[in-house]
Amino acid sequence: MNPFALKFMSDYLFIIVEKIIVKLPSLLLSYITYYEDIVDKEINLTKITKQDTVLHIGCGSLPSTSLLIAQKTGARTIGIDKNITSVRDAQYCVHALHQENQIQIHHANALTYAMQSSHVIIVSQGIEPRYEVLEHIANTMEPDTRVIFRTFSSKNGNITKEDAVLRTLFIVMDIVSHPQHGILISVLLRKKTGR
Questions:
Q1: Which of 36, 77, 97, 152 is the most core-located residue (most Cβ within 10 A)?
Q2: What CA–CA distance (Å, rounded) separates 187 from 17?
Q3: Residue 52's closest CA among 137, 146, 126?
Q4: Domain residue spans in the chain?
Q5: Which helix (H) or strand (E) holds 167?
Q6: Does the bond joining 25 to the residue before it have cis omega, within 30 degrees of 0?
Q7: From CA 123, how far away is CA 133, in angstroms rounded?
């Protein structure tokens, strides 16, 4: 199957599932746990601590990544999404789990969002326009900021041809696979000098 067709189907399926779960809070914690192994690996990869501010771009209706990072590290977490309905749903989830002191959810566009105050930036797999968002991050992030980019891997577990642009914008530090989640990978990126 074409990776882009798989990506489209995956994105669409998650949107449907999230819309259902937001309306059924009893399923919320179970859904969040689905992402726990991914987030655990990303926390270890980026060495997130309580002193960090973590920005999650594309938090969606169910801000699982933000909730898990706040719970596991104590870090201040900000989730942004350009879809106002998703933002309202995510704010509801944060409120329902009494996490308002640690997690903020904002309606924002990643193409114009100020990245400078973030120690760690996590870019969700379905972000569009991908290249432009990544370019904005590369141009505005601080030198010591750690970036996680979630994407699908090639057959051999590496970055696909479509994501090869990562190497022009960033230094690719590491790639972690998530076998329980198909071909999803988390790519650790650092700022290139001179950007």
A1: 77
A2: 25
A3: 146
A4: 3-191
A5: helix 166-169
A6: no
A7: 9
DSSP summary character for residue 195: -
* pLDDT tens profile 33-87: 888 999 999 999 999 999 999 999 999 999 999 999 999 999 999 999 999 999 9
Domain 3-191 maps to which CATH number in 3.40.50.150, 3.30.70.580, 3.10.620.30, 3.40.50.300? 3.40.50.150
How far, in Å, CA of 61 to CA of 126, rounded? Answer: 13
H or E segment to which residue 190 belongs: strand 184-191
Find where tokens 């290139």 sit: 192
- Please tell me the distance from the alpha carbon of residue 170 to that of residue 145, in angstroms, as a whole number: 11
Distances in Å between the alpha carbon of 10 and those of 5, 104, 125? 8, 26, 10
Please list, in sequence order, all residues whose beta carbon lies within 8 angstroms of the beta carbon of residue 1, skipping any fewer than 6 positions away.
none
User: Model's pTM, two decimal places?
Assistant: 0.89
Structure tokens at 42: 């990303």
For tokens 């169910």, name the residue. Answer: 62
pLDDT tens, residue by residue, 145-176: 999 999 988 888 888 888 988 999 999 999 99
Q: How far is CA 132 from CA 71, 112, 169, in A?
A: 31, 10, 11
Tokens encoding 91: 């704010």
Strand partners of residue 150: 186
Given the DSSP bridges, would you call strands 76-81 and 53-57 parallel, antiparallel or unpaired?
A: parallel
